[in-house]
Amino acid sequence: MRALAQRGPETKLLAGGTDLLPQLKNGLLKPARVIDLSGVARLRAVESANGQGLRIGSAVTARALELDRTVRSRYLSLAESGALVGSVQVRNLATLGGNLCNAAPSADMAPPLLALDAEAIILGPKGERRVPIATFFTGVRQTVLAPDELLVELAVPAPGAHSGGNYLRHTPRRELDIAVVGVASQLTLANGVCTKARVALAAVAPVPVRATAAERALEGQAVTPDRIARAAELALEAARPISDQRGSADFRRHLVRVLTRRTLTTALARASA
Amino acid sequence: MAKHVLNCTVNDEPTEVLVQPWDTLLDALRERMGLTGPKEGCGTGDCGACTVHFDGKPIASCLLLAMQARGHTVRTIEGLGKPGALHPLQEAFVKHGVPQCGFCIPGVLMAAAALLTENPRPTEEEIRYGIAGNLCRCTGYTKMLAAITETAGAAAGRRS
């Protein structure tokens, strides 16, 4: 932590290295120092906070999220997003914190964390602070982290009984690709009525965003196919997609509709199971 | 810049070599230890030619700084089987004539061996998923699939 306090813009933190190493190799980054976080035990732990939810260390790998029993049973959308990153060789290195701190608009692990109301636990010279993941991202490849701060953990509240989630993305290739659009949904039910709905989108804005209009259309209602279709339309209100080599803005809007409908349908089935 | 001493276990042997701070594990294996089985294809984790086992798990050794391997266990294709005592996957790859140019094969074998350790009876879908990170520019995937499927089936036959 001393090294962290002294670090300036000349220092980069290294977790999995799957983004940093290519940038070092092609000369995009030329840091004077690289601090390796991969051996810090607290950053590698997935801990259940006695029924209050989960604390996931920032250096937990995508592969660990994909396989972790607790994550698979209660936070399935997060496990699904971990399983989609790179190949198994990359997932054994790539970390949750790296995916978030690199802050690509297409980061796969961001939408599930938004849909689960997660908080980032950040350590700096003045101690610890907590930031809702919804406000963690400030722009393309930019976050609230100051140069002398470290993302330590993600605190993920327990979704509770009768809650289900799902993450889907569209990619031209099935493996080793970057999301054209990603959508995570989480639905919580009580007596057949939706008590909480979350829909979060990736790769349709400079930062991952919640589709709050879609959420409001579902909360307090029985979730029917018609209401899911309506919510999928409303999800477009949060999307400000660009056209690039991965897809046109129109195609991305189409994908938001389709993937919102599909993830909500799956989330409903899982919440009802 | 001063070199660093890297201590780790490579193919069951305690190993000590000098590395530069910017060397990747792949650099250290190939240039400092003479283990040229792992190959550098892309250098960015996309092609899988550099796949080795790191504490038993498959990783892209081009994405790990060598010093991150300090105290860890590494296995390369050179430690998977030996001449005369090949790994069952290597036997199957020979039998099926899988290698064409051969460049991707060490990485594919390491990925497949890790898959079968974790999941001894994979479905075809699981095999495809397990080697999705290994590119073969000769496009020899059909024979890989056959050889891996046969190895898994033979192991299951021995167990039952």
Question: What's this entry about, in short?
Answer:
The complex is a heterodimer of chains A (273) and B (160). Chain A is an alpha+beta fold.
Descriptive report:
The complex is a heterodimer of chains A (273) and B (160). Chain A is of the alpha+beta class and 273 residues long. Chain A folds into 2 domains: 39-157, Uridine Diphospho-n-acetylenolpyruvylglucosamine Reductase, domain 3, CATH 3.30.465.10; 164-272, 2-Layer Sandwich (Enolase-like, domain 1), CATH 3.30.390.50. Chain A has helices at residues 2-6, 20-25, 62-67, 69-74, 76-84, 88-91, 96-101, 110-115, 212-218, 225-234, 249-272; strands at residues 11-14, 33-36, 46-48, 53-57, 119-124, 127-132, 137-139, 142-143, 150-157, 163-170, 181-190, 193-202, 209-210. Chain A has a 5-stranded antiparallel beta sheet with strand order 3-4-9-5-6. A 4-stranded antiparallel beta sheet of chain A has the order 10-11-12-13. In chain A, a hairpin with a 2-residue loop joins β7 (137-139) and β8. The radius of gyration of chain A is 18 Å and the shape is globular. The model of chain A has no long low-confidence stretch (mean pLDDT 93). Chain B is of the alpha+beta class and 160 residues long. Chain B folds into 2 domains: 4-79, Beta-grasp domain (Ubiquitin-like (UB roll)); 88-159, [2Fe-2S]-binding domain (DNA polymerase, domain 1). In chain B, 35% of the residues lie in helices and 16% in strands. Chain B has a 5-stranded mixed beta sheet, sandwiched between helices. In chain B, β1 and β2 form a beta hairpin. The radius of gyration of chain B is 16 Å and the shape is globular. The mean pLDDT of chain B is 95. The A-B interface holds A 14, 16-18, 21-22, 24-25, 34, 36, 38-39, 63, 86-90, 92-93, 174-176 and B 21-22, 24, 43-46, 48, 51, 54, 57-60, 62-65, 67-68, 111, 114-115, 129-130, 132-134.
